[in-house]
Amino acid sequence: MTEWLPPNGVLVTDTGHSGIWTGTMVDAKDPAQMFIRCAGSLGWAFPAALGVKCALPDRPVVCFTGDGGFWYHLSELETAVRYGINTVTIINNNHSLNQEKHSNERYYAGGPGNVEELWVFPDTDFSKMAQEMGGFGIRVDDPGEIQGAIDQAVASGKPAVVDVVSDINGIAPRAWTPS
Questions:
Q1: For residue 80, what is the domain's CATH number?
Q2: 3-state secondary structure the chain
Q3: Tag placement on the chain: N or C end, fewer CB within 10 Å?
């Protein structure tokens, strides 16, 4: 994202792991770039990115969220297609809310049932959903293909989803806290 985000680009990111990954790994390289991060409501980033694009129609707007966050407002992708709200949404798709993994396992360890049903989703291809709704969708399984997929998404001229398959065990490092 640091290398790709245009000088006038706006990055809108979700809370949780999405906020940790972008807040610790994405650097602004131009004073005109904007970074808007949610501070609490999972699923906020995608509709917020649509709002940012409506407010700033001439600027590239990129949303970074996880599959857990995207599930909250998936239906707004149809709204984006219908009204030509051309954002690029990059989904960190680990088919889970893996930020909740350790706490769920700790709280429900040894209890009856399947603890994974509390934080694991079916493996879903969001790029196909985007295509079915009339947007652009591309799925990425190889990290080396992410840049090319983002370029294709931007060039599509449509609301776009870049569905990046990631490891369910990739847990974000704890955010920095003052000592």
A1: 3.40.50.970
A2: CCCCCCCCCEEEECCCHHHHHHHHHCCCCCCCCEEEECCCCCCCHHHHHHHHHHHCCCCCEEEEEEHHHHHHCCCHHHHHHHHCCCCEEEEEECCECHHHHHHHHHHHCCCCCCHHHHCECCCCCHHHHHHHCCCEEEEECCHHHHHHHHHHHHHCCCCEEEEEECCCCCCCCCCCCCC
A3: C
Residue 42 lies in a domain: yes
Number of domains the chain contains: 1
Check whether 125 has a pLDDT greater than 90.
yes
pLDDT over 80 (residue 73): yes
pTM, to two decimals: 0.89
Which listed residue (76, 100, 105, 117) is catalytic?
100
Q: In which domain, by residue range, is 89 found?
A: 10-165
Residue 67 resides in a domain: yes
Q: Is 100 a catalytic residue?
A: yes
